[in-house]
Design goal:
Length: about 100
């Protein structure tokens, strides 16, 4: 049983992990490894190793947001730099920022 605190509150919830460990044996489409997930964050890990991480909370938030936007654009086959340019232009002209939500 794993316990965790719900973000933004003091509420503690628990989750029974015993059924999750072997889910790949009984559920179609569930891989027995997490290679796909590790490949998704590989670039972030490499960047953190090269730059030695961040030293402030603000810098950590900045990197989290940039890595998220970069990964999302890659998955959606969108140009990250076009998205970034559009985001900056929207901010400067006080327009709503472009969305990363697909749909």
């Amino acid at each position: 049983m794993r316990e965790y605190i719900v973000e933004g509150s003091d509420e503690v919830q628990s989750h029974d992990l015993s059924e999750d460990y072997f889910r790949f044996m009984f559920a179609d489409g569930v891989e027995p490894t997490n290679n796909h997930n590790e490949q998704q964050i590989r670039q972030c890990v490499i960047d953190r190793m090269i730059t030695q991480g961040t030293r402030s909370e603000a810098s950590q938030r900045y990197h989290e947001r940039m890595w998220t936007a970069l990964a999302t654009c890659r998955k959606q086959q969108r140009n990250f730099f076009e998205f970034l340019k559009s985001s900056i232009e929207a901010t400067l002209s006080k327009r709503p920022a472009p969305s990363l939500l697909h749909g």
